[in-house]
Sequence to fold (646 residues):
Amino acid sequence: MNLVLMENLQRYYGTGNGGVTVKALDGIDLKILPGEFVAIMGASGSGKTTLMNIMGCLDLPTNGKYFLEGIDVTTLNPDQIAEIRNLKIGFVFQSFNLLPRTTALENVELPLLYRRNGQSTRAIRDHAKEALSRVGLEDRMDHVPSQLSGGQQQRVAIARALVNRPSLILADEPTGNLDTEMSLEIMTLFQELHGSGITIVMVTHEPDIARFAERKVVVRDGKILQDGPIPNPARAEEVLKRFREEHTL
Amino acid sequence: MKPTVLVKLSFRSIFRNRMRSLLTTLGIIIGVSSVIIMVAIGEGSQAQIRDTINSMGSNLLVVLPPRGRFDANRLTQKDAERIRTEATLVSAVSGTLRRSVTVVGGTGNWTTTVYGVEPDYQAIKQWELLEGEFLSEQDVKSRRKVAVIGSTVAKNLFGSVTGVGETLRIGNAPFQVVGLLKSRGTNSMGQDLDDVVLVPLTTALVRLSRNNYLSSIEISAISEDRMTEAQAEVEGILRESHRLSDDKENDFEILNQSQIIEVASSTAKVLTILLACIAGVSLVVGGIGIMNIMLVSVTERTREIGVRLAVGARKKDILLQFLTESIVLSLLGGAIGILFSLGVIAGLGKFSSIRAIVNPLFILVSAGFAGSVGVFFGYYPARKASGLNPIEALRTE
Ligand SMILES: Nc1ncnc2c1ncn2[C@@H]1O[C@H](COP(=O)(O)OP(=O)(O)OP(=O)(O)O)[C@@H](O)[C@H]1O
Ligand SMILES: [Mg+2]
Fold:
C-alpha cells in the first residue's frame, strides 16, 4: 500500500479576498511507498514547503485528495489531524525549531507528552533517551539548545522526529543551516535510519545532498516536473570520511 | 497532556521570568490581602461592638425617657414595680437614677457617677463583688445610706482597693460602704467601668433627684429568643401604667439589646462591605495585569506553540497549557496575598489594639476567587494561543 498518495492536489493562496491567487501547488500526483528515501528539489517558490506542509498534515489542500496510509486526511477533524501528526509524522526543520531553554532530553520527550494514551513519565524518559542515543547524543541529554552546535541541534530535532516511531519523516532543507561536514553527518544519519526501514522525504536545494536519496522529485510552479530513481546513491558515511581526511592536517 | 505535566510547565515558565511574574501577581497579592485584612478588621470591630454591648447586661431591655425629650420623662419606681409584678417574660427589673456627683472619702474626693439601683441590678448587669455584699431589698425599703463602689472610686477615696466598712459622703450625707465590685477594666470605648458608686434607688431619689422620675428601667428578659415578646409585654404594661389611650404615642422608649447590637454594628458592616468592594476592584485590576502578561507571553512563545502543534498538540492542549499557567500565576499571587495578610493581622494583634478576626472559610473563598480570576482573565490569551495556525506560528521569529 502507498504510504503517501496524492491525487491532483492543489493549494491556492489568496483566494477569497479578491487578490491575486497564488497557485502554490497546482495538480500534484504523487505516490510514496513505505521505506523510500525521496529528495524533493525545485527552485525557490516552486511549492516544496507547501507540499511538505500538506504531506505532514500541518496544512490542508484547497482541492484534490491526500491519503496517508490509506486515510483520507481531508475528511478528518482538527483533533484527529493532530493525532496523525503526533503518531505518524516526524518533522525536521531547516531552523531546528527546538524549544529554547529546554534540555535535549525534554525536547525529545515532547511528542510523547502529547500522546493520547500517555505512557508513564519513566517510560517517556526511557524512550527519549533511546532516540537520543540513536542519533549519537546520549552524552548531551541535559544540554539546552544554546549549548549545542547546529549539527547537534539538528540531531536532537531528528531524535524528536523519531521518538514516536512515525511512518514518515519529513525534512524541509534539514542541512540548509549547516556546514558541509555537519550536513554530511546528518545525511549519514538519514541513510542509517532509511536502512532500518524508515521512510524519509527531504526537501533540498543542493544536488550534493539530494544524491544521498534514492528517488528525486523535481517541482516547478506547483507541478511535478520530473520524478525518478537516483541511480547509485552516494554513501554519506564514505563521503564524510573522505571529507574529513581531506580537511585534516 | 497530563495535568501534572501542565502544572510543571506552568511553574517553569513562571519561575523563568521571576521578576515579571512577581510584578504581574502584585495586583492579585494586594487585592487578596487587602480583602482579607479589611474583612478581618471589619469583623473584629463588629465583635468588639457586640462585646461592649453584651457587657452592659444579659438579655437586656432598657426603658428610657422618650428620645430627645427628657423633660417629658414619666418613668417612676412604680412603673418598675409593675413590670416586676406583672411581666411574665422578664427575670429581673431595676429602676435606676444616674447622677454625676462629687463624693468625699477618707483620703480624697472624686467626681464619679452615682447610680441609684434596686437589688436586681446585680443580676441584670452580672457584676460580681470582690468584697462585702450587694444592696439588699431591705436597704431599698428602708432607704438606707449604704453604697457599693467600684475599684477606681475605692482607690481615689481610700487610697487602695478596699473600702468595705469605710464611710463616704454624698452631699452632706454619710454612706457606709457595704460592697466592693470586682474590677472590669475599661470597655472598647475607653470608658472606665470601675468608676461607679451604687446606692439604693430610694435613697438616691430622695437625695439626688428633685422629682421622682427615673433615668431608666433596666430589665433582663428570661431568654435571648424571647426578647421581642418581652419587649412587647413591657410596652403594654407601661402604656397601661401611664394610661395612654390607643391613639397616643409612647411616652418612653424601649431599647432591645439585640437591636442595639444590630444598629451599632450595621455601620461597621457597611464599612466592611465597602472596603471589601474597593479591595475587590484591585483584584480585578490584578486580573487584567495577568491577562496582559499572558498576551505578551503568547506572542513571545508563538514559535514554541508552532512546534508543539507540529509534534501533535491539539488546540485543547495549548489552551490548557496557557490557562493552567494563568491559574497557577493567580493562585500563587493569592497564596502570597493570604500569607501576607495573615502576617499583617498577626502584627495588628501584637502591636496594636485593633482587633481582627480571620475567618478560615473566607481565606478559602479568597483563594478560590484568585483562581477564578486566573480562569477568567487567562481564557482570552489561552484561546488566542490555541487558535494559532501552526505554519504561521513556526514561521515567526
Ligand atoms: N501563506 C502564504 N500566503 C500566500 N502565498 C504563499 C503562502 N505561503 C507560500 N506562498 C506562496 O506559495 C509559493 C510556494 O511557496 P513555498 O514556500 O512552498 O516555496 P518553496 O518551494 O518552499 O520555496 P523555498 O525553496 O524558497 O523554500 C510561493 O510563491 C509563495 O510565495
Ligand atoms: Mg521552502
Remarks:
- The pocket of adenosine-5'-triphosphate (ligand 1) is lined by residues A 13-14, 22, 24, 42, 44-50 (CB under 6 Å).
- The mean pLDDT of chain B is 90.
- Chain B touches chain A through 21 residues (CB under 8 Å).
